[in-house]
Automatic annotation (TrEMBL):
It comes from the Bacteria. PANTHER family: BETA-LACTAMASE-RELATED (PTHR43319), BETA-LACTAMASE-RELATED DOMAIN-CONTAINING PROTEIN (PTHR43319:SF3). InterPro entries: Beta-lactam-related, Beta-lactam/transpept-like, Beta-lactamase/esterase. This is Beta-lactamase family protein. SUPFAM superfamilies: beta-lactamase/transpeptidase-like. Residues 34-370 form the Beta-lactamase-related domain.
């Protein structure tokens, strides 16, 4: 039985509802997901299927968008400087030849410390402070600054330690005080206990035989860069899909992968970043958005083993996922299929969540058709 579509769309966005309904009709009967969008600070899409309106999901690496927004605010304030060496803030990071790396390079996934030789425990993965301590002593897996590769499980801890050293506050605390609380965002880096009943545990991927064969064919030795980056070289290898289902991970909210959110929370954060929302000024000035959305690392990602591009932390979403979006679009996807971004040219903020882990990981394929429908309607306003 096809899931019923709930929620509302503004005038002119009826086509988005139709596109969402068409997608859901072709999905499994147990599909759960949410779609939300803002244009120039006004909510124009608020849809969901198979769940409650206020359900919360693990959003995996879409969490990184919140981390990079914190850094962007601190750069805008003058608290952080992009071209200072990381060691100016965090002297211990100089170990093993990492002393010349700048904050700009760290954000652009050029540090080379995608993991450690022996991997991490679950307790370490859940705690950015512990991760940072381990990573400070780690020998980089390539000469820092000479290549780039996705720092999948650790980038939030790396920039978080810089934030902590510069401000005396954790990245999660700065996010809570300056972003989540003022805008009432349903996007948590550390899920408060009263919200636990709203959390919907991530369901595992259920690939078709053809998809399973494609996954099995991937190079996956325990000491490849990809395995190190995703902690598959640890004595107890990480099952990525299960991370948000761990209470410790939800409670601590590690800034790389530990966020819990609704689509409303994801879209609302990016709306606040670029637009006036509820009579509050945008969090970021236009020049800051441009700086963080510029290409910084483009080409062969040595971890993903594919063409990728990054701005300052954020994925350059128009290049990575959706070429119809405006240049300088900033955002991030999550392994389960979530995606969120801000297109400053269209004044558009987009958020999508789903419960079941999508194939092949990263932004779920349906984001292409959903984001394009939202973008088309936004431009027609």
């Amino acid at each position: 039985m096809t899931q019923e579509i709930h929620g509302t769309v503004a005038d002119g966005f009826e086509g988005v509802r139709e596109e969402f309904a068409a997608f859901v009709a072709g999905e499994r009967p147990d599909y759960e997901g949410q779609l939300c969008a803002y244009v120039h600070g006004r909510k124009v899409v608020d849809l969901w299927a198979g769940t409650e309106a206020d359900a919360l999901y693990g959003v995996f690496s879409s969490t990184k968008g919140a981390a990079y927004l914190v850094v962007a605010l601190l750069v805008q304030d003058g608290t952080l400087e992009l071209d200072r060496k990381v060691t100016y803030y965090w002297p211990e990071f100089a170990a093993e030849g990492k002393g010349a790396l700048t904050l700009r390079d760290l954000l652009a996934h050029r540090a080379g410390v995608v993991g450690t030789d022996t991997g991490f425990t679950l307790a370490e993965l859940a705690d950015d402070r512990q991760l940072a301590e381990r990573l400070a002593d780690q020998r980089p897996f390539w000469r820092p600054g000479t290549a780039f590769g996705y720092h999948a499980l650790v980038s939030g801890a790396l920039v978080g330690e810089v934030v902590r050293r510069a401000t005396g506050r954790t990245l999660q605390e700065v996010y809570q005080e300056r972003i989540r609380t003022p805008y009432g965002l349903d996007f948590h880096l550390g899920l408060p206990a009263p919200h636990e009943p709203r959390f919907r545990p991530t369901q595992p991927m259920e690939p078709t035989p053809e998809q399973r064969a494609a996954l099995d064919a991937l190079p996956d030795g325990p000491h490849t860069l990809a395995s190190i980056a995703f902690n598959r070289n640890a004595p107890d290898p990480t099952d990525l899909a299960s991370l948000p289902n761990m209470p410790l991970v939800r409670a601590k909210g590690p800034a790389s992968v530990g966020g819990v959110a609704s689509a409303r929370g994801l879209a609302g954060m990016y709306a606040a970043a670029i637009s006036e929302v509820g009579q509050q000024a945008p969090l970021l000035k236009p020049d800051t958005v441009v700086e963080f959305g510029q290409f910084h690392s483009v080409g062969y990602d040595v971890v993903a083993r594919a063409h990728k591009s990054f701005g300052l932390g954020f994925q350059t979403t128009a290049d990575t996922w959706h070429p119809f979006l405006g240049a300088g679009t900033i955002g991030h996807s999550g392994a389960s299929g979530s995606q969120a971004f801000a297109d400053p040219w269209a004044g558009l903020a987009y958020g999508y969540t789903r419960r079941r882990f999508a194939f092949p990981g990263g932004a779920a394929p349906e984001n292409g058709r959903l984001a394009q429908a939202v973008h088309k309607a936004a431009l027609a306003l």
